[in-house]
Design a protein that fits this description.
By secondary structure, the chain is α/β, with parallel strands linked by helices. The protein has an 8-stranded parallel β-barrel, surrounded by 5 helices. It is globular and about 45 Å long.
């Protein structure tokens, strides 16, 4: 089937500020700004639950995030255990779940394991699920569709598909996304594909909410009807990014562009190496205690940290 013939409408789950009378308003099932939160570790390498709680509160109350993604790429999910993932979802939900959406990253390349993590996240208090394309196995599109459908059938929670082919090894094709859009609980895409024309087409032809999965794509995606951002640098740029999104939504394109240009060096600079490395360095410079990263990641070099802190300083952050 074509993308257009797959188009459908369904009820929204959580849409702060959404006006149904505005036909061009994008859906916002998870709010507009979310941060993929780092996982803090203690000096001996254990998950630091107290610091995770403190950071979650900061991201919502100070950085003005509508939601937090726990156990995503920036949360070093490949190296945390299932028990650690459960504990992180629970503490973040307890800390901010009354005023922010808590999305649990549960994606693996094993459908049965992903389903177990979905059930665990729901039990721990998550409001939604982030599910990455099965990686390494490089399944055909039929397998990708079956995987996402099976996971979405596991709980009553809304699902955000994480389309990131440079990590997963395969994209979720347009036709696959259109087919998945028919599922009542598949409500959104974290779009790290870097193909704005493809995203624009799916935004127009389905009611999937599209969130930029690359910080620097937030304004281009908003311009074609995107819903917001699941950010990395937004540990540090969140409040200004919230201003950017608000300016765009009220029609002040000049203000949105001005903020975007101010933050663009940071949006890009956070990915000079693996994003979590520089986020943790930036948080440490602000007085947080995110700890080191787990192997196979290694901490950013002194030069990388100095360059990134310089970008934050230049942006007034």
């Amino acid at each position: 089937m074509s993308v257009t013939t797959q188009c459908r409408k369904r009820g929204r789950i959580l849409e702060p500020g959404y006006d149904d009378a505005m036909a061009t308003s994008p859906p916002t099932p998870f709010g507009r700004l979310l941060t993929a939160m780092v996982t803090p570790f203690t000096a001996d390498g254990a998950v630091d639950i107290d610091e995770a709680r403190r950071l979650a509160v900061h991201l919502v109350d100070d950085q003005r995030n509508d939601g937090i993604v726990v156990n995503g790429t920036t949360g070093e999910a490949p190296t945390t255990t299932d028990d650690e993932k459960r504990a992180l979802v629970r503490v973040v939900a307890e800390a901010v779940g009354d005023r922010a959406v808590v999305v649990a990253g549960i994606g693996t390349n094993d459908t049965a394991h992903t389903q177990r993590l979905a059930e665990q996240a729901a039990d721990a208090g998550a409001h939604g699920l982030l599910v990455v394309t099965p990686y390494y196995s490089r399944p055909p599109q039929a397998g990708i569709v079956a995987h996402f459908g099976a996971v979405a059938d596991t709980t009553d929670l809304p699902v955000m598909i994480y389309d990131i082919p440079h990590r997963a090894g395969v994209p979720v094709d347009e036709e696959s996304l259109a087919a998945l859009a028919a599922h009542p609980r598949i409500t959104a895409v974290k779009d790290a594909k870097g193909n704005i024309a493809s995203s624009a087409r799916l935004i127009a032809d389905t009611d999937l909410a599209y969130y930029a999965g690359d910080d620097a794509m937030v304004l281009p995606l908003l311009a074609v009807g995107g819903s917001g951002l699941v950010g990395t640098s937004t540990h540090l740029t969140g409040a200004l990014t919230a201003d950017l999104i608000a300016a765009w939504n009220r029609g002040d394109q000049g203000e949105a562009l001005s903020i975007y240009r101010r933050l663009l060096p940071v949006y890009r600079g956070v990915f000079a190496t693996q994003g979590v490395l520089l986020v943790k360095a930036g948080l440490a410079a602000r007085g947080f205690a995110p700890g080191s990263v787990r192997l196979p990641l290694v901490d950013a070099t002194a030069d990388q940290v100095a360059t990134f802190i310089g970008l934050l300083d230049a942006a007034g952050l």
